[in-house]
Amino acid sequence: MDIPLIEQIKIQARVLVPLVKALQAELGEERANALVRGALGAHYRKLGERWWRAQAGHDLGEKVASCFEAFAAGDALDYEVLQQSPDAFDVNVTKCRYARFYEEIGVPELGFLLVCSADFPMAEGFGADVRLTRTQTIMQGASHCDFRYSSKKT
């Protein structure tokens, strides 16, 4: 049985939120957050590598579209695909239940650290020729998240 990612995130938060708060109290917010980003970044980069290799799609657009489907499972995201081609995938996330969850538990800033900060390392795991640009997130108060994936070859 596959557990949707949104449910996995909620389960992980039970452990990670108190851990991050303890690290912040001990080390200061900046140092603790950098430590968490580094540790989780390495994990998400490897996850991205494994996920990318396992995809049946033949091009960047197909593979990233499949990734978004996984992140949206369980009604976690509403999103609009602006462009999908062999060399690009542009999408706006218009509703994010990850953000709502972290807001509900009173730590929206940790939602960005523990969820959104994974996006760039995971994209790095997709390979050296994949570039991600994102200028805003719902988690940080924007109206939408703007993900732009492209091939560095083009």
Q: What is the terminal separation in angstroms?
A: 39 Å
| CATH architectural group | 2-Layer Sandwich
Mean pLDDT: 94
**CATH top-level class:** Alpha Beta
Q: Name the helix and strand elements from N-terminus to C-terminus, one letter apiece.
A: HHHEEHHHEE
| Order of strands in the sheet with most strands | 1-2-4-3
Radius of gyration: 16 Å
**Helix content estimate:** 40-55%
Principal-axes shape call = globular
Taken as a percent bin, the fraction of beta residues is 15-25%
Number of domains: 1
Number of DSSP E strands = 4
Classify the fold: give the CATH topology. Answer: Muramoyl-pentapeptide Carboxypeptidase, domain 2
Structural class given helices, strands, pairing? alpha+beta
Largest sheet: 4 strands, antiparallel
**Spans of 5+ residues with little confidence (pLDDT < 50)?**
none
Compute the number of helices.
Answer: 6
